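I had to read the description of the data format several times before I understood it. The format is easy to grasp once an entry is in front of the reader. For illustration, here is how one protein appears when written out as sequence plus structure tokens:
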Amino acid sequence: FTDITGHWAKDNIFFVVSRGLLNGTSKTTFSPDTGMTRGMFVTALGRLAGINPDSYRTGKFTDVKADADYAPYVNWAASKGIISGTTDTTFAPDSQITREQMAAMMRRYADYRKLTSSTWVDLGSYADASSISSWATESMQWAVASELLYGNNHNQLQPTANATRAQAAAILQRFATKIVK
């Protein structure tokens, strides 16, 4: 990819692309600093799990079109309790995923694979700890303790910030090498 030369996540991107977890946005670009959508991230989790997409063609979310590339992965993840919707009947697959949403999905995926440890950390030392949504607190504690998610150089976790494709690649690579092994 021509747009990852010198990028901090270059090695993470090579890792996830070489394993088929994520694709480029074109034959020559990855778009590392572009936002990751909820549908794209769940697709990567389904690929990591090695699911058969043909087994999950229908689901409960009215905004997940049956012919969308991400549809079987979203349907699989919903059926396994890895994801929940933005409402009972919608998933918002084209919306940007936040860092705390990513942490929650990763934790539920780890639970599904029976890989979750009971390691938790207190996030009170992060400048923006109070901005973590109550539903995501335990997942963020787990993700930081598991070294999947790091704070920035301003001591912030940025839980409600949209995650970039590079950040998603880094978290997926860390999960595959630190947790799945």
